[in-house]
Specification:
Blueprint (H helix, E strand, L loop, with lengths): L8 E6 L21 E7 L3 H12 L4 E4 L15 E2 L4 H6 L4 H24 L7 E2 L2 E4 L3 H17 L5 E3 L16 E4 L3 E2 L2 H14 L3 E3 L4 E7 L2 E6 L2 E10 L10 H4 L3 E10 L4 H7 L5 E4 L5 E5 L6 E6 L7 H18 L8 E11 L6 E5 L2 E5 L6 H15 L27 H15 L2
Parallel strand pairs: 1-18, 2-3, 2-13, 3-10, 6-15, 13-20
Antiparallel strand pairs: 4-9, 5-9, 6-8, 7-8, 11-12, 12-13, 14-17, 14-18, 15-16, 16-17, 19-20
Helix pairs in contact: 1-5, 1-9, 3-9
The structure holds flavin-adenine dinucleotide.
Length: 437
């Protein structure tokens, strides 16, 4: 039973992403690592592979290195939520209305970018416009979501609309919420099929994609960069760091700025079609308004429910995985108590890359390019910023992004270990409880 140990697991439950059943990341090339490349991309997720496509199409000789398999990181583990980022408006308002508008506009461009990339490379990844509903945990939160939509609508066109509690069963078969906000333009995607399709498209364009290829000893030297892969010395003229929540100790600069945050998901066993219809009448993407995030969706074939939330135990042990899955199942049963009789077939987790200002950053560090810090919403943004930074590497105007304009800050007492996370999750959890008192 693969280290999962509780009565609510199916007999064949696994501690790997549900997505991997159909598209498991695998080591792309067993060839020997060449000793030089024109462009080295470290990290084979959405960021790295989107960048690789742009650079290869521009005629560059590109090599992608992933420490595990291409797509093994967050890119094949996420919930597959892909939408216009109205939620970023609020965060950006602290820099003024113009910035907020530009952030949301880029978010729309990011969504369109994924649609275009998928269409151009003919990637079969269940990308579909399905809509999204965010349930308000209290009447007060419902009002505040409404005010937010109004505020955005004054600055730019906004197709989000409020759904009162009396009509919420059209959106979700749950009584947990006090109405909510609906966003019809939202999409769902099968993330592992998407990232696998990106790797294959890059290879078709001549990009060398290596798995089991951890880059270490990265340093700048005359005319370029030097590093080690599988014990071999390699040189490159340009380097892109696309390691986001898995950046670890690659560069001290990033270790002090990217906060690795755990996020986990569970998938139910197949549910009866009439129950799925009742719980998820629109087969759309769903979430609650809590600060400690809970999001859920149907599997692309509409037979199961996949739910995600913050998890703290990233040890990967049987005990840690079981504790995390127990917590996530508890969230699921609060939304849909009728699922108590159904079992969990998959649990997995991955690492998000958070930043102190809650914005992604596109930066140049010691001559090396970096894009990351998607704060948990990276399906569209990692794809988009991967392509933007590739254009910056080419010296193109298309490289422009609002995320290059912000200063990338650290904080004292942070050196890569998020010691404050349990405290933050506890604190926000208490605020959620306070809201619902
Ligand atoms: C559980 C979970 C749920 C999420 N849900 C959503 C969602 O529904 N919607 C959404 O928009 N976003 C979501 N996200 C966020 C989104 O998945 C990420 O922002 C996005 O995938 C980041 O892509 P990336 O290419 O930058 O990084 P990753 O996909 O994490 O890739 C980084 C890669 O770098 C490699 N690497 C690290 N160090 C080295 C090294 N030294 N040498 C070589 N390779 C190295 C790793 O092996 C890894 O494969 C979720 C994330 C997680 C973890």
């Amino acid at each position: 039973m693969s280290g999962l140990n509780a009565p609510f697991f199916t007999d064949d439950a696994v501690a790997t992403p549900f997505w991997w059943d159909e598209a498991r990341p695998n080591d792309a090339s067993a060839d020997e690592i060449p000793s030089s490349t024109e462009v080295a991309i470290i990290g084979g997720g959405f960021t790295g592979l989107n960048a690789a496509l742009v650079l290869a199409r521009a005629g560059k000789q590109v090599t992608v290195y992933d420490a595990d398999a291409p797509g093994w990181g967050a890119s094949s583990r996420n919930g597959g939520f892909l939408g216009p980022g109205w939620a970023f408006f609020d965060t950006a308002m602290r820099y003024g209305e113009d910035m907020a508008r530009r952030v949301v506009e880029e978010s729309f461009q990011s969504l369109q970018h994924v649609k275009d990339v998928v269409a151009k490379a003919k990637i079969d990844c269940d990308l579909k416009v399905v809509g999204y509903f965010k349930g308000a945990m209290t009447p007060r939160i419902y009002d505040s979501l409404g005010r937010n939509i109004e505020r955005i609508g004054k600055v730019m066109p906004c197709d989000a609309h409020m759904v009162p509690r009396s009509e919420q069963h059209r959106e979700v078969g749950s009584d947990l919420y006090h109405g909510g906000v609906a966003m019809p333009g939202y999409c769902g995607i099968h993330p592992a099929k998407y990232v696998k399709g990106l790797a294959e498209a890059a290879q078709r364009l001549g990009v060398a994609v290596f798995g089991n290829a951890r880059v270490t000893d990265l340093q700048q030297r005359a005319g370029g960069f030097a590093f080690k892969v599988r014990g071999r010395d390699v040189t490159a003229r340009q380097v892109l760091i696309a390691t986001n929540g898995y950046s670890g100790g690659l560069l001290p600069y990033l270790r002090r700025r990217i906060i690795p945050v755990g996020s986990g998901l569970v998938t139910t066993e197949k549910l009866p079609p009439e129950l799925m219809k009742k719980l998820m009448p629109k087969q759309q993407m769903l979430a609650g308004s809590q600060r400690v995030v809970t999001y859920y969706r149907p599997s692309p074939d509409g037979t199961r429910i996949i739910l995600g939330g913050r998890v703290l135990d990233m040890s990967g042990t049987s005990k840690g995985n079981t504790a995390n899955a127990t917590y996530l199942r508890g969230l699921l049963l609060k939304i849909f108590p009728e699922l108590g009789a159904y079992r969990i077939s998959h649990y997995w987790h991955g690492q998000l890359g958070f930043t102190f200002d809650h914005f992604p950053h596109v930066d140049v560090v010691d001559g090396m390019f970096f894009a990351g810090g998607y704060n948990g919403t990276g399906v569209a943004r990692a794809s988009w910023l991967g392509s933007r930074i590739a254009n910056q590497m080419l010296g193109n105007d298309q490289g422009k992004t609002v995320y290059s304009e912000l200063s990338f800050e650290s904080r004292p007492y942070f050196n890569g270990k998020p010691w404050f996370l349990p405290l933050a999750v506890w604190y926000y959890g208490m605020l959620d409880k306070w809201d619902q008192r």
